Amino acid sequence: MEIIKGFNHLYKQFKKPVVTIGTFDGIHLGHQKIIKKVVSEARRINGTSIVITFDKRPVTVFPDNMCHDMLMSLNDKIEKIKNMGINVTVIVNFNKRIAKIRAANFIKNILHEKLHIKELIVGPKFRFGRNREGGIDLFKKMSVKYGFRVKVVDEKKYNNTLISSTRIRELIRSGSLGLAVRFLGYRYSVSGYVVRGDKRGKILGFPTANVKYNTERLVPQGVYVVYVEVDKKKYKGICNVGIRPTFATDGCVKSRISERLRCDSIIEVHIFNLKKDIYKKQIKIIFVKKVRDEKVFSNYNDLVKQIKKDINIAQKILSSKISLQSA
Question: Helix, strand, or coil here: 138?
């Protein structure tokens, strides 16, 4: 798959471009339906399948002092798009200048004059341009002038509920990982790289990898059963996401559990049967099931007992197909 960074680097001419546009955060089943249509249409007309997407959610351009959660990193998004068979992905740095582009100008200057598109494939609620002014009607009207087709893909639902990135974020925040899988089509994961920690886990007898992750990422607090991908191998493990309240002062706990500082959460994972050093390595943590909320222990002995219980639960869940299906 060819990756192009920004509209200014659209130099070459593509054969019969079939295009879709969107943030596509999470590449959930609704997104997948659109992208699959782009791939199939491009193949049908012997053209080029193209995804235009953004490096961040448009809402993050307008600061409101809140943490804007992302379902996946840009690299993970690119990888999923690639695996679906797209020929070209255009990554746009979404900023205030991009936000001010008029929809009609975008259609004329980018879709027509730079890409010479043959088809635009989008969902029924697709909006684009300054103040989201451009909808399906505008694109269809201008498609006649510039000679391309607009195809609208029906929305994807699960049990009569519309699948959306917003709804998936709500499910993950509430710990409903099993239902989130039904919307995403895969298990929610967090990617990052391993950094030095304070070695408390090793001292307690359960060495952990501390993971530096994207601070715009949605990270639910608690203890989870997980799979961990390291060097293209998958391991089983258990993960803590939070502020480690047993090791924090009362004042720190009170400040860090506030909504505004929710992104300060630490991710540490204990990987079963992993013997090698993975410091500085890229890893992916795949969340399976939430075991419990984070809690304060009065002493280290009680914490060790709870960790042993958590590991036992995780091993049972990961060894049971029935438990995994219901997770």
Answer: helix
Domain extent, residue 74, equals: 2-153
In a domain, 295, yes or no: yes
Q: At which residue do the structure tokens 């060790």 appear?
A: 304
Domain boundary among 137, 153, 169: 153
Q: What is the CATH number of the domain that holds 217?
A: 2.40.30.30
Burial of 19 (0-12, 13-18, 19+ CB in 10 A): buried
Nearest of 137, 181, 149, 134 to residue 290 by alpha carbon: 181
Query: Is residue 87, in this structure, part of any structural domain at all?
Result: yes
Q: What is the pLDDT of residue 179?
A: 93
Query: φ, ψ for residue 212 (rounded to 5)?
Result: -85, 120
As a whole number of angstroms, the distance between CA 229 and CA 7 comes to: 34
pLDDT tens, position by position, 232-257: 899 999 999 887 655 554 444 444 43
Tokens 């598109």 correspond to: 117
pLDDT tens, 94-152?
Answer: 888 888 899 999 999 999 999 999 999 999 999 988 888 889 999 999 999 999 999 99
Q: What is the pTM of this model?
A: 0.85
What's the pLDDT at 207? 85
Report residue 193 as tokens.
């790289």
